[in-house]
Specification:
about 170 residues; four-stranded mixed beta sheet; 2 domains; single chain; alpha+beta
Amino acid sequence: MKSTCAVAIVLSLVITCFASKSNAQIVSPSLPRLRFAAAERDKKSTNQVAVQTIAKGSRSGVREPSQIAIRSQGEWQKLWRQHTSTSTASGPLPTVDFDKEIVAAVFLGEKPTGGYNVEISSAELTDSLLTIFVKETSPNPGAIVTQGFTQPFHIVRIEAATAETISFRRAP
């Protein structure tokens, strides 16, 4: 049994060394068919995309946690109306060129106190995938915070109208 294990380990090392030097296909009666790719793989190009804040704060008419990507004027008007529904001085709808830009918005929902924050920190475009990175913070235990309900949010515009798929991820 020890010799069988030793042979398997040596065979594994030989396969690893051989496969790392070529684009090889190895077939053995006792091992499943293995494929090894060449070291040089096609890398997709990833580009940082500029993120411009439209609105950020702790009071919003959006009371449920959500991550939203908007691609049309109609959707934008609807979201802005909901977002500013509790504000007495909401201001006009910010202008967005949906031929070039999308709007991304993150809402944490209603929180019991102050001290919560959300920020869209960056965005990357890889081929047709737009990844939006989000940072969330919560108050530390025992922290002195506002004693009132808050609805933290961040709304941005991103020049990435060519993105077919949009993904929100936690920032590293």
